[in-house]
Structure formats: structure tokens, C-alpha cells
From TrEMBL:
Topology of this chain in the membrane: Multi-pass membrane protein
Source organism superkingdom: Bacteria
Transmembrane segments: 35-53, 86-109, 121-139, 151-172, 200-218, 230-252, 282-304, 331-353, 359-383, 404-427, 439-457
The protein's name: Amino acid transporter
Organism lineage string: Bacteria, Bacillati, Bacillota, Bacilli, Bacillales
Source organism of this protein record: Bacillus chungangensis
């Protein structure tokens, strides 16, 4: 049997960066001005690195498909394993609304109607149309196979590189603009203003850049010398991501006039750069179209991915039989339709909160909160499994002997989660004071409801929910049907 080709150190660095290289997060960084350097370092050191390193040990010790759900299930039992898988699914409801909201903004620039980017009713309508469209397409075609990797190249990597290049050229030409988010620099600007607590909420949005950092850990078993190379790859990837994001964020902070930055509008800095550097405006239309393609491809990939993970959880008996329904193409139809309906309801926030910037940030923070709860469960599980299953071989292990390093990394991760949850509940400074109470109630209720539903379902779980293994006769019948279909 041919040996599986192992990933090189540079190969894993490339894959890890590919997960988090997104141009959509740049405005959230840029709005914090010089403070973004502090925020990015906090997000990287306290959040991304500890979670990535813990996930690497867990994924090499428990390499079976399922990731966080498997780790938490082994450590804390089936109930919390189900809660983990549930939260990773429902966070998508909020995350995909945030991603889909950029479709309307980008489409406005593609058709030379930039004013539509701040029209909340238009954004709401486009979210509904775009998400339901990619859902229907995925029910009919294998969109991931059709799109391949070109969507990420066209819609993410090329626009990100162009943004950095244009931003650096703009900075060299014009210097630091006094009326920008970087103007009138003072050393104290590098540290958050703790008197303005609302500005701390942006840390939650910046941490969201690294949400999903555990995904790259699935490759930990497939890298040459994982004990040495995996931490090098993770640390190098995070450092590079911090550098690229800060360069992009600072150049955008320097170009956009203070108080005018639009969080959901990544096209805004391209327009400023092109106008200043004498680049034809059609370039902005092309870039907008490229990013739009990337966003639609990303939406398409998320339609089926989480659903296919959840239907395995349903088959194990964690959800009623209704959730186990599949189409002839093996698509988990119940999950796909439920997530489309819930995403439609969540997107109504763009009507309730008239300001597009505020709605975008609120939804980003909700997604981050749900992710953080999962990461808290992962950190607790990492420690628990050291004592509960010490005999399990871990090709990558934090610390050669003892559990001291694991305790340190896990506690560091839990501290970052607590900090993120606290700042997430502080109303953002861009909100009207009259909306503060509503904001806190929304975030608390949304979190409690999402966790509560999972706990209630688990409490009501019945033995007959578990999918029965097919009998030999049923397997024979299915194979015969397949052969008949092939012959026809």
C-alpha cells in the first residue's frame, strides 16, 4: 500500500493561513486605529495559540472525524459532546448572516450604486436571496466540487494582496493622514482607552478573525515530525497573519476619514486608494465582483459542511429521526432547510437595527460568544483527558513530561475566553445609548437560548432516536438498486 504523502512544515503553514486569510475582517481592525496592534497581539497570544496547541494534542490523540465534539464527549460525556457539536452548528446561523450581509454591499458597488451599502432593507433582502439561492443550488449540484479552490483565490487571496499593496503605496505617497483613525499619534493610542468601555467590544470582533483555529489541527497527524513541526507551523502562521492583518488594518485606518469607516463595506478602502492613486474606477467594480464571488463560494461551502457533521450526531441518537432525513443525493435536507430558515430570521436584525455597521458588529460578537463557549469546553476537556485517559498515545503532546504545560495553556485559554465574554457584553461605542440595554439582553438571551435548546434536546433524548444499522438484507437491497440504476 502506498504511503500517504506527509505535509511539510511550509505546507502546513500555507494551509493554516488559508483558513484565516480573509479581507472581510480588515474594517473591524481598522476602526480601532493604533489600538489594533494591541488587540491583535492579545487575540494571537491569549486566544489563537493556546487553542491551536491544545487542539493539536487532542486531534493527534483522538484523530477520528468529529474533532471538538469527539474530544469533549470523551472528556465530559455525551451531553457536553452534543452541546459542542450543536454550538458549532448554530454559530453558523449568525456567522453566515454576517458573511451574507457583505453580498449586498459588494453588489451595490458592482452595479455602481454604492449608496445601497448603507440601506438596511436592501442588505436584508440580499441576505435572503443570496443564502436561499446557494442553498437551492447545493441541493441540485455539488457546488464545492464546481467551485473548487478558485473561489478562494479569486475572492480572498488576490483582493487581500491588492489591498495591502495599494495601502502601502498610499501610505508612502501621503504619509499619515491627520483626519484619519491614525492621525495625531500619541504613545497612549497603542493601549485601549479603558474610560471608553464601548471601544473594548471591538476586541471580540478581532478575536473572531481566529475563530475556527482548531480546524488546522486535523493535519497534525499528517505532518513530518509533529512534535517539532506543528508548534513551529502554528506559531509562524499566527505571526504572519498578525503582520499581514495589521499592515492591512493600519493602511485602511490611515485612508478612511475618522468616523466614516463602514464595517460591512470592504470596498470602501479600495475606492479611496484608487481615487487617490489615479486608478480607473472600474477597478473597484472588478475587485468588488471578485470579493463577491469569494463570499458566495464561502456561503456555498457552509451550506452543507456543518449539516453533514450534524447528521452524524443525529444518527448517533442525539436528535429525533426527523433530523436524519436525507435526499437521494445523501444531503441532510432537514438541517439544510432549518439553517436557511433560522438564518433568514436572524438576518431580520438588519431591519430592527437600522444602522448596518451596528447590526454587522452585533452579529459578529454573537458568533464569537458561541465559539468561546466551545473553546472553554475544549480547554476543560484537554486537562480532563490528561487524567482520564493518560494511556492514549499523543504524537503531539504539550510538554514532554507531566501536565504543567497543559495546565498553563488551558488556563491561558480560559482566561482569554472569560475576557472575550466580558468585553462582548459591553455595548459597542457605535451604538446609540438607548440601544445599550437591548444589546445586552439580546446577547445574553441568544446565548442562553442556543445552549438551552441543546440541553433540553439532550434531556428529552430517547433510545429509539438512534439510527438502526442496516441489516444484511437491506444492504443487499441497496446495492442491488444501485447496480440496477447503473445498468439503466
Amino acid at each position: 500500500m502506498a504511503k500517504t504523502k506527509r505535509l511539510t512544515l511550509f505546507g502546513l503553514i500555507g494551509i493554516t493561513m488559508a483558513f484565516f486569510g480573509t479581507v472581510r475582517s480588515v474594517p473591524t481592525l481598522a476602526i480601532t486605529g493604533w489600538t489594533q496592534i494591541f488587540y491583535m497581539l492579545i487575540a494571537a497570544v491569549l486566544f489563537a495559540l493556546p487553542i491551536a496547541l491544545m487542539s493539536a494534542e487532542l486531534s493527534t490523540g483522538w484523530p477520528e472525524e468529529g474533532g471538538p465534539q469527539v474530544w469533549v464527549k470523551n472528556a465530559l460525556g455525551e451531553k457536553w459532546g452534543f452541546v459542542t457539536s450543536w454550538l458549532l452548528w448554530v454559530q453558523m446561523f449568525f456567522g453566515m448572516v454576517m458573511v451574507a450581509s457583505t453580498v449586498g454591499v459588494l453588489f451595490g458597488y458592482v452595479i455602481n450604486q454604492p449608496g445601497l451599502s448603507s440601506n438596511n432593507y436592501f442588505i436584508f433582502a440580499v441576505i435572503l436571496i443570496s443564502y436561499w439561492s446557494v442553498t437551492i443550488l447545493n441541493l441540485k449540484f455539488d457546488m464545492v466540487k464546481i467551485a473548487g479552490n478558485w473561489g478562494a483565490v479569486i475572492g480572498v487571496y488576490i483582493p487581500f494582496v491588492i489591498l495591502v499593496i495599494l495601502g502601502v503605496i498610499y501610505l508612502i505617497k501621503n504619509g499619515i493622514q491627520p483626519n484619519s483613525y491614525l492621525g495625531n499619534f500619541k504613545p497612549s493610542d497603542l493601549i485601549p482607552n479603558f474610560e471608553d468601555l464601548g471601544s473594548l467590544t471591538y476586541l471580540s470582533g478581532i478575536i473572531f478573525i481566529f475563530a475556527g483555529v482548531e480546524i488546522s489541527s486535523v493535519h497534525a497527524n499528517n505532518i513530518e515530525n509533529p512534535k517539532r513541526n506543528y508548534p513551529i507551523a502554528v506559531i509562524a502562521s499566527v505571526i504572519l497573519l498578525v503582520i499581514f492583518n495589521i499592515v492591512a488594518g493600519l493602511t485602511v485606518s490611515n485612508a478612511v476619514p475618522l468616523g466614516k469607516l463602514e464595517l460591512a463595506n470592504i470596498t470602501q478602502p479600495y475606492m479611496i486608494f484608487c481615487e487617490d492613486l489615479g486608478i480607473p474606477s472600474i477597478f473597484v467594480n472588478i475587485i468588488s465582483l471578485m470579493i463577491l464571488i469569494g463570499v458566495l463560494v464561502q456561503l456555498s461551502a457552509w451550506v452543507l459542511g456543518p449539516s453533514k457533521s450534524m447528521i452524524k450526531v443525529a444518527d448517533e441518537g442525539n436528535l429525533p429521526r426527523f433530523f436524519q432525513k436525507r435526499t437521494e443525493k445523501d444531503i441532510p435536507i432537514t438541517f439544510v432547510l432549518i439553517q436557511a430558515i433560522v438564518i433568514s430570521l436572524v438576518s431580520f436584525l438588519y431591519v430592527v437595527v437600522p444602522d448596518v455597521n451596528s447590526a454587522f458588529l452585533i452579529i459578529t460578537i454573537t458568533t464569537t460568544i458561541l465559539y468561546c463557549i466551545v473553546y472553554a469546553l475544549i480547554a476543560i476537556s484537554a486537562i480532563r483527558l490528561r487524567y482520564k485517559m493518560p494511556e492514549i498515545k499523543r504524537p503531539f503532546r504539550l510538554g514532554s513530561k507531566g501536565n504543567g504545560l497543559m495546565w498553563f495553556v488551558s488556563i491561558l485559554s480560559l482566561i482569554s475566553v472569560v475576557i472575550t465574554l466580558i468585553v462582548s457584553l459591553i455595548p459597542p461605542s457605535i451604538l446609540d445609548p438607548s440601544q445599550y440595554t437591548g444589546y445586552i439582553i439580546y446577547q445574553v438571551v441568544a446565548t442562553i437560548v442556543m445552549i438551552g435548546i441543546a440541553l433540553i434536546i439532550n434531556k428529552c433524548k430517547k433510545p429509539e432516536w438512534k439510527k438502526e444499522a442496516p441489516t444484511n438484507n437491506q444492504s443487499f437491497s441497496k446495492n442491488a438498486t444501485r447496480e440496477k440504476d447503473c445498468l439503466e
